[in-house]
Design goal:
The protein is of the alpha+beta class. The protein is about 40% helix and about 20% strand. A hairpin with a 5-residue loop joins strand 9 (about 190) and strand 10. Helix 2 crosses helix 3. The termini are far apart.
Length: about 240
């Protein structure tokens, strides 16, 4: 009797495993057409351009379109940029060298640094370090169809920001929120206004992002003296997720 019960249990377990295997196979079979066709409804490819020249190099047949895109980005920057109540905290996250050649002697003037600016509302925000364009927008332009920049969603077009390498490496919550940024970093990374990690400053090719990651800025204002739970924390988490 015990032997029969053992055999019965084994058969039930094998049956469950077979059903799970069949279900997994069906899921994979269902996903195959999406992969074959190169279509993923949950993700999209984007390009990040540091300058208009970089955009024009990609869209050599529609260079004026890059200027139109950048003008729209400048307008969106005023609304989407991360905002801080303190200049020191803003620059702790975002200050970085933008002209390395001129700093080879070990001294950088203010003109060679990306520092935070005060907006009309009295809050501080970083300057944008480039702009993000959905690959589909670029593809349409290749074929002579230039979409109105003002009609593009934030997911399709938005400013991107340069966050310091120190911010991404540091998990320290020092008492002044600034002392662990003891030097101005030469190495920096691209992030969206919501702190979604895109890549380091040498980024050139397309980046695949979940569409939810490209949502417009939440409008959150960062305040207080510590970095815990702030913009830097979000950027670190999304960088780790991107590299895992």
């Amino acid at each position: 009797m015990a032997a029969q019960e053992g055999i019965s249990t084994a058969l039930k377990n094998r049956s469950r495993r077979q059903k799970r295997s069949q279900a997994a196979t069906l899921v994979l079979m269902g996903a195959t057409p999406l992969v074959v066709l190169g279509f993923d409804p949950w993700h999209t490819d984007v390009r990040v351009f540091r300058t208009i020249d970089a955009c024009q190099s990609t869209l050599s047949s529609a260079q004026g379109y890059c200027e139109d895109l950048e003008r729209e980005v400048a307008l969106r920057h005023a609304v989407m940029a991360p905002k801080y109540t303190s200049r020191a905290q803003c620059e702790a996250d975002f200050a970085h060298v933008i002209n390395e050649e001129s700093c080879k002697t070990g001294w950088c003037s203010a003109d060679n640094l990306a520092t935070c600016e005060q907006a009309d509302n009295g809050l501080y925000q970083p300057p944008y370090s480039g702009f993000l364009v959905d690959q589909s927008v670029l593809d349409k332009s290749y074929h002579g169809e230039q979409l109105d920049p003002s009609a593009l969603s934030d997911r399709q077009l938005q400013p991107v920001y340069g966050i310091s390498d120190e911010t991404l490496k540091s998990g320290d919550d020092s008492d002044d929120g600034y002392s662990h940024h003891s030097h101005v970093p030469f190495f920096w990374h691209y992030v969206t206004a919501n702190g979604q990690y895109l890549g380091n400053k040498n980024l050139r090719g397309p980046v695949t992002m979940a569409r939810t990651q490209l949502a417009g800025s939440s409008g959150k204002v960062y305040n207080g003296k510590t970095q815990r739970g702030g913009f830097g924390s979000t950027a670190r988490q999304t960088m780790q997720a991107a590299r895992s």
